[in-house]
């Protein structure tokens, strides 16, 4: 029993680490996007397998998302309430984090199953694509930001602000 | 960081300032201007921009070293144009801003896809489906939401965290908020 618990903990840790490394690659239904599917060389069979894994988790993900969002809403209301009891707010914070943990666990286990459908080289390619995307997006952000700041500096000074 | 702004008489943060806050250089988080803690409109606008930028970051692109300067400039021009168009829609919902980001994203994706189209098609036993159905799009939104919530990102509509003043004492919470 202990070994099984330890094994599950290891699996979850691995899945969590993978999902952190490739979190953006896993956002959305990437296996249905033609660009990614083509670059990865995903077969229709692999797409079907991944789809089935996702469908098995879909209802649970919908329920867990709703549960987390409701708890966030309740916490948000309590945070804005001047008369809120500190201990009550603390309980609500814990409830939000527990709901988030359950959602993370379900997602991580689904991703682990999906990872096993891919060949190792496809997985590596997916990670590489993710890295490229991050670098490209960061570079685009920095270039656009620099240009906008340059244009702002060239613009005439604004009138003093009236608050 | 209560610096003057260049957008209108009400002193709201400019789009350039919002973009700068939504897209800080890597490893250089900026302190939030005190104005954000006083102005719900700017706080919301920043959340909208962060959401739009998240959309930009969530798709695949070609390796950056394969992109020419001209292609980069074209993408920059398109991005800046989208930001300027968004200025007019400051009061629009965050979904509208996300739509602009999605349109921009299509342009970003078009660069690598154009190249893919010009290459010989890879030989595969079977071909993946080429279009996303309405159900796929709904699933896509679900998975993005789940990823965002798992990371602990607040949704744009209840981003009360952004109302907290920055640690060096700028700003503060408006009475009645937090």
Core attributes:
heterodimer, A: 163 residues, mainly alpha, Four Helix Bundle (Hemerythrin (Met), subunit A), 5 helices, flat, disordered N terminus, B: 178 residues, 0% strand, extended, disordered C terminus
Tell me roughly what share of residues is in helical segments of chain A: over 70%
Spatial separation of the terminal alpha carbons of chain A: 66 Å
Oligomer: heterodimer
- CATH fold descriptor of the domain at 19-122 in chain A: Four Helix Bundle (Hemerythrin (Met), subunit A)
Structural class of chain A: mainly alpha
Secondary-structure element pattern of chain A, one letter each: HHHHH
Can you put this structure into words, describing what you see?
The complex is a heterodimer of chains A (163) and B (178). Chain A has 163 residues and is mainly α. Chain A has a domain at 19-122: Up-down Bundle (Four Helix Bundle (Hemerythrin (Met), subunit A)), CATH 1.20.120. Chain A contains 5 helices and no strands. Chain A has helices at 2-21, 34-40, 44-80, 86-117, 120-154. With 178 residues, chain B is mainly alpha-helical. Chain B has one domain (1-117, 159-171). Helix content of chain B is 52%, strand content 0%. In chain B, helix 1 (15-22) packs across helix 3, helix 3 packs parallel to helix 5 and helix 4 (69-88) runs antiparallel to helix 5. Chain B starts with 14 loop residues before the first helix and ends in a 27-residue tail after the last helix. Classes of the chains: A mainly alpha (163), B mainly alpha (178). The interface between A and B is large, with 68 and 67 residues.
């Amino acid at each position: 029993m202990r070994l099984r618990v330890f094994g599950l903990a290891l699996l979850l840790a691995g899945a969590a680490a993978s999902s952190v490394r490739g979190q953006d690659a896993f956002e959305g239904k990437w296996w249905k996007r033609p660009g990614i599917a083509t670059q990865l060389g995903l077969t229709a069979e692999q797409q079907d397998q991944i789809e089935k894994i996702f469908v098995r988790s879909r209802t649970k993900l919908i329920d867990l998302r709703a549960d987390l969002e409701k708890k966030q809403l309740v916490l948000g209301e309590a945070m804005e309430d001047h008369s809120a009891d500190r201990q009550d707010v603390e309980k609500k914070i814990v409830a939000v984090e527990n709901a988030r943990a359950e959602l993370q666990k379900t997602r991580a286990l689904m991703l682990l199953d999906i990872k096993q459908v891919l060949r190792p080289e496809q997985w590596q390619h997916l990670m590489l694509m993710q890295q490229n995307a991050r670098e490209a997006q960061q570079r685009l952000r920095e270039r656009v930001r620099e240009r906008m700041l340059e244009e702002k500096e060239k613009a005439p000074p604004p009138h003093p602000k009236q608050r | 960081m209560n610096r003057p702004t260049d957008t209108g008489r009400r002193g709201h943060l400019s789009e350039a300032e919002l973009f700068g806050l939504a897209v800080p250089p890597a490893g250089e988080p900026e302190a939030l201007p005190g104005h954000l803690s006083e102005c719900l409109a700017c706080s919301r606008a920043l959340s909208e921009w962060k959401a739009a930028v998240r959309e930009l970051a969530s798709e695949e692109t070609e390796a950056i070293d394969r992109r020419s300067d001209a292609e980069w400039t074209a993408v920059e021009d398109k991005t800046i144009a989208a930001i300027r168009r968004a200025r007019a829609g400051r009061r629009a919902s965050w979904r509208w801003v996300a739509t602009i980001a999605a349109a921009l994203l299509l342009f970003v994706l078009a660069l690598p896809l154009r190249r893919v189209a010009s290459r010989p098609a890879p030989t595969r036993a079977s071909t993946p489906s080429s279009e996303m159905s309405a159900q796929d799009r709904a699933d896509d939104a679900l998975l993005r939401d789940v990823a965002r919530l798992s990371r602990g990102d607040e949704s744009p509509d209840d981003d009360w965290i952004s109302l907290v003043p920055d640690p060096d004492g700028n700003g503060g919470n408006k009475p009645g908020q937090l």
